[in-house]
Design a protein that fits this description.
This protein is an all-alpha fold. 58% of the residues lie in helices and 0% in strands.
């Protein structure tokens, strides 16, 4: 349920919500959620995803691929 709500929030792209979404990621996130943030198209969410990855021992590499959500885009 939490993942679906975060994906909806990313798709809605409500201005001013990115910082709060990063807090959600850092407190409750997992690898899948971090990947959604990294691929969202939002610089703030991408930075949060990189922070989460660094805190959990992951290296972030940029490659072509698919993603489940885009900032402000259904």
């Amino acid at each position: 349920m939490q993942t679906r709500l975060v994906l909806l929030a990313i798709k809605l792209g409500i201005e001013g919500s990115q910082d709060e979404l990063v807090v959600v990621l850092l407190e409750y996130g997992d690898q899948s959620m971090a990947e959604d943030y990294l691929n969202s198209g939002s610089g703030t969410l991408e930075a949060g995803g990189r922070t989460w990855a660094n805190l959990h021992g992951f290296d972030v590499k940029t490659v072509d691929g698919s993603h489940r959500s885009g900032w402000g885009s259904f």
